[in-house]
Amino acid sequence: MSRVRVLLADDEHLIRGALAALLGLEDDLEVVAEAASGPEALAMARAHRPDVAVLDLEMPGADGVMVATQIRAELPSCRTMIVTSHGRPGHLKRALTAGVRGFVPKTVSALRLAEIIRSVHAGNRYVDPELAADAISAGDSPLTVREAEVLGFAADGAPVAEIAERAALSQGTVRNYLSSAAAKLGAENRHTAVRLARERGWV
Amino acid sequence: MSRVRVLLADDEHLIRGALAALLGLEDDLEVVAEAASGPEALAMARAHRPDVAVLDLEMPGADGVMVATQIRAELPSCRTMIVTSHGRPGHLKRALTAGVRGFVPKTVSALRLAEIIRSVHAGNRYVDPELAADAISAGDSPLTVREAEVLGFAADGAPVAEIAERAALSQGTVRNYLSSAAAKLGAENRHTAVRLARERGWV
DNA sequence: TTCCTCCCCTGACATTTGTCATGTGCGGTG
DNA sequence: CACCGCACATGACAAATGTCAGGGGAGGAA
User: B4-137 and B145-200 share one CATH topology?
Assistant: First the structure.
């Protein structure tokens, strides 16, 4: 019986290497490629055509979900999974929409991860119960398209004038969107609103 | 010859477990305790009196530097090291001031980490060259004590009135500190100032 | 000592930001 | 069709924020 061919992508060498070693100990798993960045992960996937791609959410170049989307487009037979340190509800939704079949926090053990890889390879889906609960309780973004867009522009602390220019809106309108977004998020001002929206993965 | 007794603290089980396994393969290293939070790390240190404590910088409860400080106070013979995902210059300085003897990003390999653990145990210090360079180029914080304090209170987006109350200052004074801090950091407003100060580890 | 510099602190003034009332147009419902 | 609700958009006004000029005190240099 052939082993499950796994691609491992994580920018932290310490984790990637250790993980590769541990997963390699499993009889039925085989780590065929490793990558330290989004683009590299994609290139490795093309070159090695793995059965399952295990992708870190935070990577330089392109994040895990972007890579997963691309992989699905180019290698439909390859299942994708996301592992992440600090799971934001919005990311989970984004990942599932992108066709990711496993979403796991880094707080699980390597043994458990191996089981999940097998399960995903067998065609099942797996979402960490804790993260799923968070996502459900956080619910969908209450923000409208424009609100989210403007909040995004405000994310790095830019003044309203600059946001207005970038969004091609009047300053009054921008202030309005920021205000309503803050109200929906229960924030006192736009800066805490940005923080909250980030935490929930809505920007 | 007795082996180096290592304490491993990291809230990500995936990493901690994998790392424990890999370090355990080294003949001269022995992982005698693991912890998933700051307080737990401290308790484990007290109970097992390791030779070297390898601490993650970001942990729930108390961060790696706090734990290191405490360990040094209670177990002077125990060397401490910090590993971190995203090294901020200020943290490095804070760590060194706290008597930490190794500061390593998670981008190194497990093998390299093992070498560094040995080196630290032998009495040497080790600081990742990249992080050291960052720290040097970032330099010392130009902020005065009050400026840093007020900027810290402003970090979560609180309005000036609240900051003034928490810092027991007039609102005018608070605005003044925020303003001068922003100027020193080259920021347009206090929110970008907060971001920059965070990046450099000055808050 | 005297001077100088820098940190700490403040209120008054100008600018930016947040709130409100209002208007337009689209998509679904009775 | 007429109506309702909602997203999108705006300017005027009120509130929060940033800037400025300046005073008091500690510490170091002349």
Answer: no
A136 contact B CB<8A: no
Q: Are A70 and A42 in contact (CB under 8 A)?
A: yes
Which residues, at least 6 apart from B163, have a Cβ–Cβ distance to it below 8 Å? B150, B153, B154, B169, B174
Residue A137, pLDDT above cutoff 80: no
Read off the pLDDT of residues B46-55 as tens digits, 9 standing for 90 and up: 999 999 999 9
Residue A135 is predicted with a pLDDT of 79
**Inter-chain touch A189–B157, beta carbons under 8 Å:** yes
To the nearest whole Å, the CA of A106 is away from the closest chain B CA by 5
Q: Tokens 């007794």 correspond to what residue?
A: B5
Give the E-state strand segments of A14-77 in sequence order: 29-35, 52-56
* CB proximity B178–strand D (7 Å threshold): yes
**Chain B residue numbers touching A57 (CB-CB < 8 A):** none
Whether residue B132 lies within 8 A of chain A, CB to CB, comes out as no
* pLDDT computed for residue B137 by the predictor: 72
Task: Tell me if A113 and B21 make a contact (CB, 8 A cut-off).
Answer: no
Taking domain A4-138, whether its CATH number is 3.40.50.2300 is answered by yes
Inform me whether the pLDDT recorded for B89 exceeds 80.
no
Q: From the CA of B150, how many Å to the C1' of C18? A: 23
Q: What are the structural domain ranges in chain A? A: 4-138, 145-200
Helices (H), A49-157: 64-74, 89-97, 110-121, 129-138, 145-153
Among A11, A12, A14, A108, which would you mutate to test the B interface (most chain B Cβ atoms within 10 Å of its Cβ)? A14
Residue B8 in contact with residue B34, Cβ under 8 Å? yes
Topology of domain B145-200, CATH: Arc Repressor Mutant, subunit A (1.10.10)
Give the span between the Cα atoms of A187 and B115, in whole angstroms. Answer: 48
Is the model's pLDDT at B191 over the cut of 70? yes
**Which CATH number is B4-137 given?**
3.40.50.2300
CB of A191 within 8 Å of a chain B CB? The answer is yes
Helix (H) and strand (E) counts for chain B?
A: 10, 6
